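Read as chain and fold; for instance:
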Amino acid sequence: MGVTIHYTATLKSPALLPELFDEIEELSDEAGWDLTHIGPDEVRMPDATEVQAEGFLLSMHEQMEPVNLIFDSNRQMINFAYLLGSSTGDSEQDVQNFEIVEMDAEGEIKRVTSNDSVDSQVMARWASTKTQFAGPEAHIGLCKLLQYLSGKYFKTIEVEDEGEYWQSGEAETLILKMNFLDSVMDDLELYLKTSSRLEIKNSDDMLEELKKFWSIVSRKKK
């Protein structure tokens, strides 16, 4: 839970990769960011093709997830989380029981998406960076970095910003969403500590507790 930026990109040319790496290293030195070099590694994709992946994980803030700047030999971004799974041969097993459960404002299940409906090839190309705990300034900083890299290095970029700053360039909605989720997470922690259920034995029990909790949150919002 928490505001997250999802993104994928394609480089203009493989020849730009060393220049991109050099500039990211320079920016990191100036800003005090941590940089972890990844690869080059051979990766087997979900469609059975094999590509070489190389890049960086960029830590812009100690309370923000790393920024994924890893690309394959076809110039496309590749998700580091998938890279780990594919290198051990466990990536298919990892998503075997994968489900996305969406609930409405009343805590009722609106939609359940099973792994059968998830395109693993697409998942391998998208990266996500949660910014919730780093605050709006870090979130905006990541958006500005992606915008800069897009203009100079990327042929295409797609961004899905849960804080809506990428789409609007306005910080107000981002701040409201982050503040609301901070409050929800604080309430959830308290709720689970004081819940009448003594034991949560499985995922169904947890889902029931979350439905009850979301109903309470929804009433507080009205």
Q: What stands out?
A: The longest helix spans residues 171-194. The two ends are 21 Å apart (CA to CA). Residues 4-169 form one domain.
